């Protein structure tokens, strides 16, 4: 429901509560060349890093127009992650963990393996605040750290090659990863690290996965790369608990195929058992960095794709049948929120006919307000919502309960 972008002139914050409407919440031109902007869910707290001062993190209350604090580090800041409990600053060879309520530095993880892209993930559920980052520069080992207890949780041997992407689901109970090859995506249980799912993105070519994200209900996992295809996988069953096939010729052959894998080398049989994409999107661009998100807007599941040229594409995702997602809206993020109509859809109804089945089933699609373990305040478990007036007694104090306006769905 919220989108933040950094630009050469500053940064912009948007609110997205409908497909047609893209509302600009805030624009700042005080700091140029912003390459990191992270907003604390829907609150007024925003963290900004600029190319002008790449070693300095600035924390603002943008509604008041005040700077809460700033911190400087020994080398360039590569990424920042935050939830209601912790703020993580990732440098190339160290990670800093702050208590977000008073910005006190709680822990410094020194001498981490070289991490030139600042790859790390933080659970948005503050009840666990798990942190994941590369445990090796040469292999796909994941270091899992408990940001609340400030102790190492476990190490997960996820891939053979170096890691390229990491992401938690909304409750912090699952962690997805991809290596630099980009052919296989794996999902592990947290905090134990057992492998739950394995998805094959493709076999023909290696790709650079730039975005990996769960849906808020953890039913879907989306991966985008430097190619024109976005893949969406469905986590509806474990690979070792497949449902019975119907008594058909294809079902019979499927059973024979499954049985044959028992006699093949483990690597080959594992590859055959991997689940392929449930839904896909063919972008009009290729080779351009993009970020994806799976969101529920107006009670329907949507795929959002933001590209580095400043556009937001919104697609319909059929949660029952999958298949090719339909582009329904294109927004420009660089023209003060001005919207651009998708020319291909100008003569089509707002919701294409191919998606009619999904629209008819919209009452069965979970909304964010009914998803277990999630509430609209931004990832806190039910019963653990922190009112803003109790959020902090220190300098990071968001002053009113209207910081989190109701989400229109």
From TrEMBL:
<keyword id="KW-0446">Lipid-binding</keyword>
<dbReference type="GO" id="GO:0034497">
    <property type="term" value="P:protein localization to phagophore assembly site"/>
</dbReference>
<keyword id="KW-0853">WD repeat</keyword>
<feature type="compositionally biased region" description="Polar residues">
    <location>
        <begin position="361"/>
        <end position="372"/>
    </location>
</feature>
<dbReference type="InterPro" id="IPR036322">
    <property type="entry name" value="WD40_repeat_dom_sf"/>
</dbReference>
<keyword id="KW-0677">Repeat</keyword>
<dbReference type="InterPro" id="IPR015943">
    <property type="entry name" value="WD40/YVTN_repeat-like_dom_sf"/>
</dbReference>
<dbReference type="GO" id="GO:0006950">
    <property type="term" value="P:response to stress"/>
</dbReference>
<dbReference type="InterPro" id="IPR048720">
    <property type="entry name" value="PROPPIN"/>
</dbReference>
<dbReference type="InterPro" id="IPR001680">
    <property type="entry name" value="WD40_rpt"/>
</dbReference>
<dbReference type="Pfam" id="PF21032">
    <property type="entry name" value="PROPPIN"/>
</dbReference>
<protein>
    <submittedName>
        <fullName>WIPI1 protein</fullName>
    </submittedName>
</protein>
<keyword id="KW-0472">Membrane</keyword>
<dbReference type="GO" id="GO:0032266">
    <property type="term" value="F:phosphatidylinositol-3-phosphate binding"/>
</dbReference>
<comment type="similarity">
    <text>Belongs to the WD repeat PROPPIN family.</text>
</comment>
<keyword id="KW-0072">Autophagy</keyword>
<feature type="region of interest" description="Disordered">
    <location>
        <begin position="361"/>
        <end position="381"/>
    </location>
</feature>
<dbReference type="GO" id="GO:0034045">
    <property type="term" value="C:phagophore assembly site membrane"/>
</dbReference>
